[in-house]
Amino acid sequence: MFEIVKRDGLARIGKFETRSGVLETPALLPVVNPKIFTVTPRELYDEFGFRALITNSYIIKNNENLREKALEVGLHEMLDFEGVIMTDSGTFQSHMYGEVEVTNEEMVQFQKDIGTDIGTVLDIFTEPYWTKEQTAESIEVTLERLQQACDMKGEMMINGVGQGSIYPDLREDCARRMATMDIDVHPIGGVVPLMEQYRYTELVDVIIASKKGLNPNRPVHLFGAGHPMLLALATLLGCDLFDSASYAKFARDDRMMFIDGTYRLADMKSLDCNCPACRGQTLESLKKMTKDQRTKILARHNLYQITQELALIKRYINEGRLWELVEIRCRGHPAMLDALRRLKSHTEFLERTEPLSRDGALFYTGSETRARPPFLRHAERIMERYVPSASKAAVFPDGSKPYSRAYEWEFHKARRAGYVPIVITPFGPVPAELDEIYPLAQSVFPEITDAETVASMDELTFNFLEKMGFEEVIEGCDVPEDGELTYDPDQIRARAIANYQFGIEAADALFRGKIDIVKSRKTGKIRNVISDGEHILSLRAPDGLYTLKPEGAKRILEKVPAPFMRVAVNDDSVPFVSNGRNAFCQFVLEMDENIRPMEEVIVVDKDDNFLATGRALLIKNEVMSLKKGIAVKVRSGNGDDA
Ligand code: GUN
Ligand code: ZN
To answer: Range(s) for CATH 3.20.20.105 in the chain?
Structure first.
């Protein structure tokens, strides 16, 4: 069973329950060669904290001593490892050396017999140079073998390896067909050659295509990915498990892995590493020791690089900043930069899991940052959900934030003269009313702008101004000194935020009759919106977005048909949710597929009656497939005084 504990876009911190304990993801499984322990499994567990490893059942089966021992005492005792043991099946050997002399049935049975926790089907490795026809045919064979493996797996979990070479449609189709099978882990296979050849853009396409089809309630393993340089990017794309043989292979070759690449000891000018393995060593001392001693130290160094990077990735997920780490990491190699640039062609897919707001500010690290989903989301919402409050516009250059404080007097003058103040920002146009919303206010850009960002700002602004059909557009500095303010800017702001956050139809339902606005005496910011005497919305200071109150939710239920903004739960869940308890995935019957993480939602019963308001943590396809975990963090139930 897999539970998502924390998410950042497609990236997730999860808990994967196995019979040998709960594994926290993202996790890397060191590859243990059953014939030679470069680092012993016991050390991997005790010293490095690895709670899972992967070894090869094909090698064990083909070696009489190992086979007899494994069958007699079981894999855990043979390796002296109490954590989770995954085994591979011989597929990689067939990729390296041609055909293997075993059947899928034999391999699955053997893995069961030696007590593997997670066994692997004997899949067919789809090579990147294969034709589409050859690839499609071999996928059929892999899927048949997978069905056989599922039928015989018993207590063992099964790795259903997704294949499809470099063909995104085959990858997605293969994934979709596996999603309905009784599989426990989804490795993405056949990607080792792409990684060896630095074909990272294709790797990105393959991972995304697979993620589109896979079942979100199972961890995704990127088979053969173990270089620390790649881990942040692969995690951002939704991979949960990795494995590394390189830590030992490279060590035997006198090569050291670092976050920016792999270096030969012979080429290095200094040993500038302070990991526990390198501490006290110099290049000279390493070169002087015996090969065996050195291999041990380099392997440990390589493992420390991996564990360090994984810990950092977890921290960035927890802080909601994994994109930033990825953007930094992808500058380590031009091929990685290509991978980062490739993400732009997948922004629409990535937007589906992008939270509505995050705790920290968005940091711009370069023109690739504009491929992040919040940029696309703003461009769409501003075009579809903004209604200008006047027929003329005055445009202002980007400045300090929030704009309505920096430009307080200028905005006032523009409004008096009948112009909507609009700031031209790297996100595109930002009307004054929306200037406190995440990430428009909670973002930091360099003052020296790059040409690509300027071009994109201009294009977005041009399209926006044209769509809004203003009769006149002038520079903010040219606004004439005349007119009289005929409206309350707070009223305009309150409504504009609702349009932007919930859509115009929902905002129409929310705002009726007389609107009273309660402002903070300290900050002067809007706090509560009262409509017809009822408290419908509260504005959150950190992200400038609304919290939906029960009265507001009821108005939306009345006016906007289901499933809009709804998460419907079954009868068992009703008493809990209406008392303010969270809504759990396993009780959800239906959900609006347009709900994004951290969005305000209305929890209803099966007949669309109001139960509570709250914030969604997951999107529909995750909620519908997960058997554990919180779907909606409920704020106030029916019984609440709200
Ligand atoms: N190890 C690396 N790639 C693969 C793959 O595609 N299938 C299996 N079974 N093991 C692998
Ligand atoms: Zn080191």
So the answer is: 2-245
The segment(s) of the chain belonging to CATH 2.30.130.10 are 561-642
Nearest CA to ligand 1 atom 7: 189
642 — pLDDT class (breaks 50, 70, 90): very low
Mutate to test the pocket of ligand 1, among 123, 183, 203, 221 (most ligand atoms within 8 A of CB): 123
Q: Which residues line ligand 1 (CB under 6 A)?
A: 88-89, 91-92, 120, 123, 125, 161, 189-190, 192, 223-224
Which one, of 235, 131, 126, lies nearest residue 191 by Cα?
126
- pLDDT (tens digit per residue) in 61-120: 999 999 999 999 999 999 999 999 999 999 998 888 888 889 999 999 999 999 999 999
**Could you tell me what percentage of the chain is helix, strand and coil, using 3-state DSSP and rounding each to the nearest 5?**
45, 20, 35
CA of 224 to the centre of ligand 1 (A): 7
Superfamily of domain 2-245: Queuine tRNA-ribosyltransferase-like (3.20.20.105)
Superfamily for 561-642? PUA domain (2.30.130.10)
- Report which of 290, 190, 166, 186 is spatially closest to residue 241, judged by C-alpha positions: 186
Q: Is 88 a catalytic residue?
A: yes
Task: Kindly report, as residue ranges, where domains of CATH 3.40.50.10630 are found in the chain.
Answer: 367-487
Q: Which of 125, 194, 196 to mutate to test the pocket of ligand 1 (most atoms within 8 A of CB)?
A: 125
CB 53 within 8 A of CB 21: no
22 phi and psi angles, rounded to 5 deg = -90, 125
CATH number of 367-487: 3.40.50.10630
pTM (whole model) above 0.90: yes
Residue 51's closest CA among 77, 30, 33? 30
Residue nearest to atom 4 of ligand 1 (CA): 189
